[in-house]
Amino acid sequence: MPATLPVIALVVPCYNESAVLPLSIPVLLGVLDRMHTEGLCAADSFILCSDDGSTDNTWAVIESLHQSDPRVEGILLAHNRGQQAAMLAALTDLTPRCDAAITVDADLQDDPEAIVEMVRKFREGYDIVYGVRASRSTDTWFKRTSAKAFYNLQQALGVDTVYNHSEFRLMSRRALGMLKDYDESNLFLRGIFSHIGLPHTIVTYDRNPRIAGETKYSVAKLISVSIDGITSFTAKPMRIIFLIGLFLLLADIVVAVWVLVSHFQGRAISGWSSIMLSLWFLGSLVLIALGIIGEYVGKIFVEVKRRPRFAIQSRIGGEESAHCSYF
Ligand code: UDP
Ligand code: MG
What we know:
327 residues, alpha/beta, 7-stranded mixed β-sheet, binds uridine-5'-diphosphate, binds magnesium ion
């Protein structure tokens, strides 16, 4: 066993979770205790609850949990900004204080036992450990189907994410340091960590039902996160518009033949042929023009993000680079 055990931080985004936290936080503290006893993490490992501007008494519950056990800490966001922002705020806040952080939902749908497995993988040398759902039988049919469609659409558009992974994930201090180089406002964390790279692995788990309360994701919130998950990573939809325009321009030839044959056979009423020809031709030109503009907008989209162009994972000899300081 190494002389110093890693400090593990559990990051819990909470939005109106006052019914859930008194049940879930003791379970998570129990996991920290057990990991410490087994020599997996330091005694000062802690939990950081990120209250996403709750409108119930979640903050008061976090305060009382802190009174009972100072390892429970909290930050309160001034407004409800969504789970992504709540997690990012906590990850940014705790970065220098832990060796690895694990984001875990407040409702224990993410199996707490998988946390132990994640820390084991971290100690084997992995920087990122993705929690992957082996089954989601406890989710509704709508949730399962929409999630599957979303993963498939993301992959089809070339967005690099881990299938059936949500936000249950371990990130090393080095990975969290690299996260700071991503300045963009519309952060979609699971995609960013795939983008960062570094040694990574998965831990599978069965998704549990919510221990209390209701889901905090309305359909509108789900749609908004899904759109972010695609538009923050790829400008491909704009290229698809361009390709549709080109395809329609080719289809124009077939349409033109059909219109001209109908015209000369006298089957077309007066004016129909010219309207049809110009409609198809102009339609495809408009789409091609939009696609070309889209290509330039796509370039601007990539540039304004100012994402790191590379990240040095290791070095042999020479001076330490900025990124190597995350070790
Ligand atoms: N959450 C949040 N802000 C929001 C919505 C949700 O911080 O605007 C938190 C919520 O408290 C929970 C986690 O994100 O800890 C996942 O939310 P939920 O369990 O409601 O989603 P579901 O599991 O139904 O997809
Ligand atoms: Mg949940």
